[in-house]
Amino acid sequence: MKPMMTSFLVATAISFALTVSAQAKTKIVVTYPYIASLVGEIAKDQASVTTLAKGDEDPHFVVPRPSFIGKLRQADLLIINGASLEIGFVPPLIRQANNPKIMPGAEGFIDLSQFVDLIEKPDKVSRSEGDIHPEGNPHFILDWHNVPAVARTVADALGRADRGSSGVYQKNLDAFLARWKVKSAEWDKQAEPLRGKAVIQYHRLFDYFVLRTGMKIVGELEPKPGIPPTSRHLEELIESNATGTVYMVVTDPYHERKSPEGLAKKLSVPWAVLPQDVEAVPAAKNIFSLYETLLASVLK
Amino acid sequence: MISSAVITALLLGQPTEGTVPGPGATEVPVQPAAPAITEPIPAPSYDDLLRRIEALEKTAEERTPPPAARSTAGAFTQNRFNPDLSIIADVAGVGTSITDQTAQTLAVPGFLDQSDRGGKLRGINFNYLELAFNAAVDPYFDFFGVVTIAPAEVKVVDVEEAYVDTRQLPFGFQLRIGKFLSAFGRLNGMHKHYWDFYDPPLVYEVFIGAEGLKNPGLRVSWTAPVDFLLQFNFEGYQGVVDESPTFNAVGYDLTAPNGAEFSSKAPFVPGLYVGSIKTSFDFGDHVFLAGASLMYGHSTQTRIQDPPTEPDMAFSAPGTILYNGELTYKYLISSYRSLTWQNEYLGRISNGDLAQVSSDGISHATVDKKQGGFYSQLVWRFDEPGRWRMGARFDLLTQNSITKDGVAWNPYTVNGVSQPLHNLLQRYTAMLEFSPTEFSRFRLQYAYDRSRFLDGVQKPIHEVLLQMNIAVGPHGAHSF
Known about the structure:
Chain A is α/β, with parallel strands linked by helices. Chain A is 43% helix and 11% strand. Chain B has 4 helices and 23 strands.
C-alpha cells in the first residue's frame, strides 16, 4: 500500500510541477502571423504563441471565431497590428474574454501601429471615401525598415510580461537586430533596379513596400478602399496608363484574380500575387522570407 | 512649418542613384518622404544640403511671428471624452396577402391570441432609428447604451439597453449591471440588425416576444481558461416585461358580470432568472457553437378585453420554465464566403392557476402547458467580395399540449368555444441580401406563414418585403 501511495504522491507532485511550469510560460495572443514570427524570434521557446488570423485571410475580414475568446481569456499579452486593421473582430472578442490583463489601456495590450510612423493619414475622414483608416495606412509591416521598431516593442512587452526572462529577450533581440541589419542592407541593394518603376495594386496594401523599393503606385484596382473593381474604373486605369509606363500589376492572395490578370493582359505587363503577411503564400514562411518573397516576386 | 517639410524631403526623400539606405536608415520614417520620392530633383551634395538647411532655418526663425493671444474659449471643452456614437436606421416596404386589420387579429392557437404586426404593415414601414453609445466610464467600467426611436405611429423613445460591464474583475469573471438583452439562446442577445432574417423565428415570437427579453438586472459571466469557448452566464432580472407572451409579472383584476371580483397577488420581484452555458470548438475551418439556456420566473398571461369579445381570463404560474438548446455550424469557405447552419429549440413548461370569467362568476382551474418548437436556417455568403448572401429558414411548433384540470384545452376560444389544439404549425422563409459595404444592406425576403388562424380557421399568409438597413459612425463588429 505504502509504495503505491508514495508513487501516487510523486506522480501528483510531478504533474503539478508540470502544470505550474506550463503555466509559467508566458501566453501570448497575436492577431497576425508576422507578429507570431517576431515573437518566435525574440521569445524562442519561452512563450506560447497563438495567432488569430491566417496569413492567407483578408486581414480586414477575420471571422471572430468564438474559440478566440477562450484563448484571449488566458493571455498574458495581446499584440495587435492596430490602426483599425482589427476593428471588425478584436473589440467584441476582448469584451467577452473577461481578461483585465489585455484590456485596451492595460500593460498587456500592445498596439504596434503606435510605434511606427504611418503614411497616408487622411486629413478628413468620410465613409464616402470607402473603407479608410483614420490613423493612416495600417500595412506598415511591409517596409522592412519598420521591423526593428516593431521587434523592439515586442521584446519590451515580453520583458514586462515575464521579467525573469527579460535578459534572454534582450539577448535574442540584439541577435535578431544584428541579423536584420545585414538582411536589410541586402534587400536595399536588391531593390535598386526597381527604383522609379510604376505598379498598379489591388488595394492600398503594398504602399510601404513600394515606397521602400523606390517604386511608385499609379493606381488601385479598387475604385475606393474596400469597393470591388468596376469595369468602368478598370477602363480608366487602362486609359490613364499608356502601354509601357506600368511595370507590373500586383495583388494579394485573398482577392479574386480575374481583374488583376485581365488588367495586366490589357496593359501587356506581368502580374504577381504578393504576400501581405507571413504565411500568405507558401514561400513566405517567416519574417525573413516574407521580404525575400516580396522582392523575388517583383524582380522577376 | 513649410521649411521643416522641405528639409525632411531633401534629406530623406531623394536617395541618389547608387546610394543604398544603409543600416543607419533603419530608424528613418518613411512617411514624410512619401510624396517626394517620385519627383525628379537633381541630387545635391552633402555640403549643399547643409547650407540649404541653415538658410531655411534662418528664414523660418525670422518668419516665426511672436505668439499671438489665442482664444481661451475652449479651455474647458471636453469633446474628446465623448462616447462613440453609431446611428442605425431601418426601413422596409412590405406586401402581404391579407389586410393589416385582419392580420392583427390572427392567432397562433395556444401560443398567441393576437399577432404583433410591427414592421409588417402594408406599404412602407419606418421601423426604427437607433442610437448606440459606448465609452469607458473609468478604469473599472465600460458603458454601452442603445436608445431606440421607434415607429412614427407609436412615437416612443425606448432605452433598449443601458449597462456597464466591469473591466477589472479577476479569474475570468465579468459583471454587467443595468438594462440589457438576456444571453438566453443564440438570438436573444443579438440586436435586430445582426439577425439573418427580417423577423425573429416563430419560437421567439410566441415565447419571448418579437423584441427579445431585455430587462433591468444583473449578469455574472465566467469564461473558463481553456483554448475553446466555455462560458457560463447567470442573470437576475426584475421580471416585469412589457408585451412578453410568457413573463409579464403584473397583477391583474377580474370582474364578472355578476359582480364577483378576483385580484391576483402581483408576482414577487425581482423574479426572473436566466442561466446559460455556451461552448464553441473549431476543427480547421469548421466551427461549432452550442449552448443551453434556462429561464425561470413567474408567468402571468391575461386576456382582459373591453368590451369582451371572448371571456376574460388570467393565468398565473410561478415557477414557469423556458428552456433552449442551440447548435450552429459554420464552414468558413474563404475570407469572404461561408455557410452557416443555425438551429434553436425553445420550450415552455408552465403550471398554474387559471381564473376565468363566466356568467356565474369567476371559476378557477389548474392549467398545465408543455409547448415547444424550433427553427433551422441555412445562410450562404456566396460571392467573392462577400457582398451577397442568401438564406432559408424553416419554423415549426412541434409541441402544444395544454390541459385544464387534466383535460386537453385551448385558451384560444372563438365565440367562447375552446378550439382544437394544433401542433406542427409552420412557416417557410427565404431571403436574398446585398450589402454594398459593411455599412449598408438591402434584403429581399419572402415568407409563407401557415401558423396563423383567423376565427378558428387556418389562414396561410404570403409576405414579401424589401428592407434597407444602414449603420453610420464607428465601425461595428463583424458578427460570427
